[in-house]
Specification:
InterPro entries: DUF2849. The chain is α+β, with helices and mostly antiparallel strands and 107 residues long. The protein has helices spanning 40-55, 79-86, 95-106, and strands at 4-12, 18-21, 27-28, 59-70, 73-76. The chain has one domain (4-106). It has a five-stranded antiparallel beta sheet, with helices on one face. β4 (59-70) and β5 form a beta hairpin. The mean pLDDT is 90.
């Protein structure tokens, strides 16, 4: 049985980009940089940091999502969150899929 962990996600107010709460309260654009929350105290602290970011008009639509660890990364449990992490489903030459492709081609 896979262990369920949590991440805090939101949309950046400036441009609508999907972001995740990373280390030290910074918002990151890739799920791989997200802070993985493994207990209730960590979730509570992360949600408090997210509430401060909402109050500062940095992000909107904050939510805590379930993820499982796979290898060195995490995968959202719900399809909706997997789509948000990957980017648009109709044009994979845009968004996060394209950025990942360009990065792998440059390596």
């Amino acid at each position: 049985m896979k262990t369920i962990c949590k991440l805090v996600t939101a949309n950046r107010l400036a441009d609508g980009e999907v972001v995740w709460l990373g280390a030290h309260g910074a918002w990151v654009e890739t799920i791989d940089g997200a802070l993985v929350l493994e207990d209730a105290a960590a979730v509570e602290a992360a949600e408090a940091a997210a509430a401060r970011a909402v109050a500062a008009n940095e992000v909107v639509d904050v939510g805590t999502i379930d993820v499982t660890r796979q290898g060195s990364g995490v995968v959202p449990v719900r399809l909706r969150e997997r789509i948000r992490a990957a980017g648009p489903t109709f044009r994979t030459d845009l968004g996060k899929q394209a950025q990942a492709s360009r990065a792998s081609n440059a390596a």
